[in-house]
Amino acid sequence: MTSNDGLGSVMRPAFAIRLAVAATLVGSGYIHAQLYLAGYRFIHVVGDLFLLQACAAFVVAALVLFTAPVLLRAAAAGVALGALAGFTASRTIGVFGFTEHGLTPAPQALLSLLLETGTLLILAAWQAAARARRPVAPSVP
User: Fold this and answer.
1) Gap between the Cα atoms of 50 and 72, Å rounded
2) Spatial separation of the C-alpha atoms in residues 128 and 134, rounded to whole Å
3) 95 - beta bridge partners?
4) In whole angstroms, what is the distance from residue 85 CA to residue 71 CA?
5) Is 96 left (phi over 0), alpha (psi -120 to 50) or beta?
6) Segment 91-118, tens digit of pLDDT
7) pLDDT number for residue 61
8) Given its phi and psi angles, is residue 136 left (phi above 0), alpha (psi -120 to 50 degrees) or beta?
9) For the whole model, what pTM was predicted?
10) Domain residues of the chain, as ranges?
11) Taking the mean position of all CA atoms in its chain, how far away is CA 74?
């Protein structure tokens, strides 16, 4: 049975966007979990941060698949921003004495950058589209 009320066409894009956000978060989480297991777990504090980032990415990704209120979208952005901040800090000032250079380890560093940036771009486009759909409040004379 199909419906012509347009509800299905409204729901599909919203789910597609949630799926895209979840996919980028899962990708980032997977990379951080893989690096944790490959040896980052032995780096003081940094290893724990990699594990925390992976867990947070997986949890937020799962929640985004089911619902995505503004607070949860902000959490998704926070996970991506946190990973990008850690990436930047590890290549500039260091993180708890740990530093890396360039796009090492390869290819994980580049993939992580692309996924986290993708998360933020999708969320920004989603927010802009939501804002554009809001009804304009009547002006009060």
Assistant:
1) 21
2) 10
3) 98
4) 20
5) left
6) 999 999 999 999 999 999 999 999 999 9
7) 98
8) beta
9) 0.85
10) 11-129
11) 9
